[in-house]
Design goal:
Layout (H helix, E strand, L loop, with lengths): L1 H37 L8 H31 L7 E5 H11 L1 H6 L3 E6 L5 E5 H18 L5 E8 L5 E9 L5 H6 L16 H14 L3 E7 L3 E9 L2
Parallel strand pairs: 2-4
Antiparallel strand pairs: 1-3, 4-5, 5-7, 6-7
Helix pairs in contact: 1-2, 2-7, 3-5, 5-7
Length: 236
Amino acid sequence: MVVMETIAKRQRDTYISTLNHDLKIPTIAQIRALELLLDESMGSINSAQKEIINSTLDSCRYMYEMLSTITNTYKYENKDFILDCEKIEVLRFVDSCFENSLKKMQDKNIKVLLRSKDSFLNIFADRVQLQKALQNLIDYCVTNAYENTNIICELKRARDEENIFISLVFESPYISAEKLKNMFNMYSTPSEKMDKVGSGLSLYLAKQIIEAHNGEIIVESNEKNFSSYNIKLPAC
């Protein structure tokens, strides 16, 4: 039994190494080459060519994000991670995460209303890892929110003074209680997955990262087409 587990682990490690080296590196090279073409570093291009290159670049970036999600999910599944925590000012941190999703929001004419009930809210967390989690959740919100609407992001300290909440509220199709229960599962049936390909794994990773920070995420959806994501994290 132990031998079989060792062989299985070795196979998983080989698979992850293949993703990291044989797929991620060529994808990065493709992204850099396409960015050079768009910057016209290799010569001028017309609008039709720019549109094709932009579309291909988006596809390559999405592929890179998916590969990163898969490898990071494996690390959290196997407890093979070390959090490099630091004091983080929540308002600036959240604002920078939304900045990274600016293009996606502009495509759907979605605006962000960022509100904070406290002047200074700080957490002790791994900035890189927590950004991945929050970015995945923001991307989900933008993907599923109705066009021409707002995402309301509210930051506040919990009543116990020991935690802070990052709440994301937006208009979207109603999500049943059953789907809410399963949406953060690593494995789910196609009907349980979100519209965006790979979002199930992204949401699963977000939950793992938040829980690794001794936090939790609570999701709600009502029949008035409003969804809310409440992320609770220890304050410092």
